Amino acid sequence: MIRINEHYRKLKSSYLFSDIAKRVAAFQGAHPETEVIKLGIGDVTLPLPPACLEAFHRAVDDMGREETFRGYGPEQGYPFLREKIAEHDFTARGAAIDASEVFISDGAKCDTGNFQELFADDIRVAIPDPVYPVYLDTNVMAGRTGEAEAGRYAGITYLPSTAENGFIPELPAEPVDLIYLCFPNNPTGATIDRDRLKLWVDYARANQALILFDAAYEVFIRDDTLPHSIFEIEGAREVAVEFRSLSKTAGFTGTRCAFTVVPKECTAYTADGEPISVHALWHRRHTTKFNGVSYPVQRAAAAIFTEAGRVQVKERIDYYLANAAIIRQAVKDLGYSCVGGVNSPYIWVDGKADSWAFFDLLLNRAGVVCTPGAGFGPCGEGYIRISAFNSRRNVEHAMERMTRALGG
Ligand code: PLP
């Protein structure tokens, strides 16, 4: 008899985006004349930077000629891309990373989801609340939790991110082994400064723990005092892994390219306390279960490091950040407090009401779709997330409608 992994049955069905879709469809049915503006899902709207597109086209042509055709590439990625990433994204910022420590992949979703499988079943895992759901669900699938009750799985150490702590979780009261952090944060848009990040690195060093640092939104950081990488923090190489993505950086959500940085010093332990290289484990896992990102996609990705590519990426991020500033202003003018939208594409609004009630209000009165904060965890209750990923016209219209509907 073929039996299932029973842990999958513990997963709470993610009704969030299907619930949103249902409510939007119902509204649209009743108001066919209203153009619904979607500021819910975090997907980019601007096309690929021309520099990437040109490199993409050239590489596709390479695939059509025998002399330049490429078959299987290195599973970890081509040196031409790994070297550029190490040089521009890390070493140039004072975080020395070698190209051999960069693993190219087809998404930060897969990497943040898969990384936990290197570790024992009975480790203690710390996960922020609210959170990008992949970290939690993949640990549930792996059997590291009990059943869920009131939105919380038994066995997980939750790290609340609330207005009281400025949306930066406090160090856990109980010892933990694996820690997920995400900055700039999805969904709150909060950022972390060097001192606060150093507290986490020091904690991990003192407790032989490991930090999985998701920096998928790093490119939105414009405040020079903020760290772009956890490896800018002294001592992080032994205790941290960092995930990056080109999805939001350069519009690759549909093209797919990301990377994970695992320093050679990064260490985990056997049951007897023998130190083991996490780089070696991830290398083994990656080369066994993954066969590399396609050559044209890696060529397109490498183009973000050309002079033209850098300018075009900056223009795109400027555009979304200007959208975010419009949203922040409108929200504040309406008397709501919010975080994010600066150094981040997400604005986390204290709706002073039930998340879903506020969602319905915005949809029904303004024809604007946001994401109810409760969908990201119990600490998200009372909040909504508004995304800056849309056209300027749509963002402006959405904020005008919201101001008319909720103002006065
Ligand atoms: N990490 C965070 C925090 C995200 O918000 C997202 C996408 O929304 C991802 C990772 C996934 O990125 P990718 O498109 O590279 O899979």
List the helices and strands and how they pair.
Layout: H1 16-30, E1 37-38, H2 50-63, H3 79-90, E2 102-105, H4 108-114, E3 125-129, H5 134-141, E4 148-149, E5 152-153, E6 156-160, E7 178-182, H6 194-207, E8 210-214, E9 240-245, H7 246-250, E10 258-261, E11 267-269, E12 275-277, H8 278-289, H9 295-302, H10 307-333, E13 338-340, E14 346-350, H11 355-366, E15 368-369, E16 371-372, E17 383-387, H12 392-406
Parallel strand pairs: 1-15, 3-6, 3-7, 7-8, 8-9
Antiparallel strand pairs: 2-10, 4-5, 9-10, 11-12, 13-14, 14-17, 16-17
Helix pairs in contact: 2-9, 3-9, 4-5, 10-12
Bound molecules: pyridoxal-5'-phosphate (PLP).
Description:
- By secondary structure, the chain is of the alpha/beta class.
- The chain has helices at residues 16-30, 50-63, 79-90, 108-114, 134-141, 194-207, 246-250, 278-289, 295-302, 307-333, 355-366, 392-406, and strands at residues 37-38, 102-105, 125-129, 148-149, 152-153, 156-160, 178-182, 210-214, 240-245, 258-261, 267-269, 275-277, 338-340, 346-350, 368-369, 371-372, 383-387.
- It has a seven-stranded mixed β-sheet, with helices on both faces.
- Helix 4 (108-114) packs across helix 5 and helix 10 (307-333) runs parallel beside helix 12.
- The protein is globular and about 60 Å long.
- The N and C termini lie far apart (64 Å).
- The relative contact order is 0.17.
- The structure holds pyridoxal-5'-phosphate.
- Pyridoxal-5'-phosphate binds next to helix 4.
